[in-house]
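User: I'm putting together a teaching handout on how multi-component assemblies are represented. Below are the sequence lines for each component of a complex, exactly as they appear in our records. Could you produce the 3D structure of the whole assembly as structure tokens, so the students can see both representations side by side? Please keep the chain order the same as the input.
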Amino acid sequence: MKDKTLNLILSEKSKRKTVIVATEINSGKQVIINETINSDINNKILIAIRNNIIHGKSEVVEIEKKKWFINISLPPLRLITVGAVHIAQPLAEVATICGYEVIIIDPRAAFGNNQRFPDIKIINDWPEVALNDLQLDNRTAVVTLTHDPKLDDSALNAALKSDVFYIGSLGSKKTHNARIQRLKIANFTDAEISKIHGPVGLSIGAKSPQEIAISIISEIISNRNNFENNEDN
Amino acid sequence: MKQFDDILNKAKLWRKKNKSVALATVISTWGSSPRPVGSQMVISEDLDIFGSVSGGCIESSVIIAAKETMKTGKPKLLKYGVSNSEAWEAGLTCGGKVQVFVEKIGDND
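Assistant: Of course. Below is the structure of the complete assembly, with chains in the same order as your input.
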């Protein structure tokens, strides 16, 4: 791999773009594949890997009797939490360990600051403003943690209209029912509202902020992997 | 802020220091194997390693291959599995098979 290729992969991925690298296994010859390039090999590979692109599946394919490894590298998984509250601290840590890029949104700088969250990106703005600038794609999870409708509801509103793969909202059953009523008044359908995981997290009897953080990240992972959770598992 | 794509970023960091670097990538798996296709490990000329291509079963053998690839610039395709004659040295106890592609990072100098 040339230095140029390495730098290109990293810069494209930092822009949350999917990068496809094709490597001819015998010679080590390497090309970046994308729809804007018009070369013979690019076009042949693109046709051969149409399904791989849809499913984000890396694999060895044979093109004109040569074996190519197609490495499809998706943008990093990302967790956006609204509310720089206590639970957000262990959640940011475990999510980072699990490979998620974490962004915390909280207009209250007393909560959302790098003293409380070292090495985490913090946006001190209202969720509707902050989320508007972020790409809410299918590699992103959104979790609201404030219990405050002023903050949580606008974030849920944006998340429900986007492609995010997971939406979670902290709060008791009672809080969640009140939230559902407000979203119904805001014209969200039952099907849309049912995308919200609330009370948030897998049922592991979590009590402390740390335990709740583990239960939330576990639910996110389980959704990411399309793992069916039921009482028997 | 924390860097994502840590493995390739680590490679970039080492390259900036003008070190030789090799990249190992899992390109195919059969049956039960510890890391999925696309998993990567980088190896520097000082034999610093970052990332993984298995649960630790084949890494030392991959590092040996990486040293040679760093020297020659030639990529290598490594195959591991229980049926491998080297099973005692570097095999997968889980019974799976895995192929690892090792390449040098950097323009051949």
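A couple of points students might notice: The two ends of chain A are 43 Å apart (CA to CA). The domain at 78-224 of chain A is CATH 3.40.50.720 (Rossmann fold).
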